[in-house]
Amino acid sequence: MNLSFMEYDDRLILRKFEYLRISVTDGCNLRCLYCNPEKREKISSLSKNWLKPDEIKEIVKLFTKFGTKKVRITGGEPLVRGDIVDIIKLVSSVEDVSEVALTTNGIFLRYYARLLKSSGLTRVNVSLPSLSDVRYREITGGDVETVLDGIRETIEQEIKIKINTVAYGKELLDEIPLFIDFLKEFKVQIRFIEYMPLCVGGYKREKFLDLENIEGLLIDKYGFRKSEYNRYIRSGIYTRDDLKGEIGFIRPVTRQFCDICNKIRISSKGELIPCLFSSKRLNILKLNEKTEEEILRKVVLFIKSTYTKPDIKSIIERDEIRSRIYEIGG
Question: Looking at residue 316, what DSSP letter applies?
């Protein structure tokens, strides 16, 4: 039984969910300003409320019925879970799943890279808001050299890797030479990401940096050229002949791409989340439907009833921020 949303509503043809993102914890060992402005305490121990490994596997199996082929494990910080390797093994064992990815802050990556590779992990995204020792510590509370060691080990294990850099503040413009030097050593793609309103009670408008500033610098001052266009993020990919890596841009605020979004999210408590900016939830683990088909229909009806394109600029202007990114994953 391989259902698609085309059977239920033509509006959702472009939202056939090939990409499932599961948060396995809302805990983290860092306190990033753009994610955790409430300054919650760091959490590094297991919680009884987090999804269990077998529950995660069953959720993945359920969503393969919608066409899910790619699964990304997120958090919080997924590597604070002592059973993360077991989780990756279980997810990668699900039939029809072709890619298992992980989003991490990279602090523990040097210890886990080899085990993650052997468990079936195919791709890693590392959150790296700064390459300056001082600024990285100011933003996250962590040590950037530890993250760089983790990136090196991940590349050594031949795991595909991308770098996610939230553009938090105009100070980032001064770091562009550092990122260029970084690409001389690492064959990776850096994606600069617009700072989004995903932190209740703490979004700082003055920290929003228009990525046109970085794009202009790369072209006009540093001699970058566009090598390709990525339609999934609606951005040019830029490079230079002397570099191993490349740079892209993700603009969910100024250039929304909701119409081509193929992602669905599950929180660490088992709640289905139709959109990063939605406050609606459906707990998959608490559904009373007895058959798989009944569960699938309940999920489809929930998604249809909550399917609205968010006006992110309006959310910022009206200060209507309802989501906490550490609860639902990026």
Answer: H
CATH code where residue 298 lies? 3.20.20.70
| Separation of alpha carbons 272 and 85, rounded Å | 23
Name the pTM for this structure. Answer: 0.89
Instruction: Indicate the number of domains in the chain.
Output: 1
Largest Cα–Cα separation, the chain: 61
Token pair recorded at residue 66: 């919608």
| Domain range enclosing 81 | 5-328
Comparing 89 with 258, the larger pLDDT belongs to: 89
Summarised one tens digit per residue, pLDDT across range 294-330 is 887 888 788 777 766 666 656 655 555 555 666 666 5
- Give 156's contacts (C-beta < 8 A, 6+ positions apart): 113
Phi and psi at residue 302, to the nearest 5°: -65, -45
H helices present in 262-319, as ranges = 292-305, 312-318
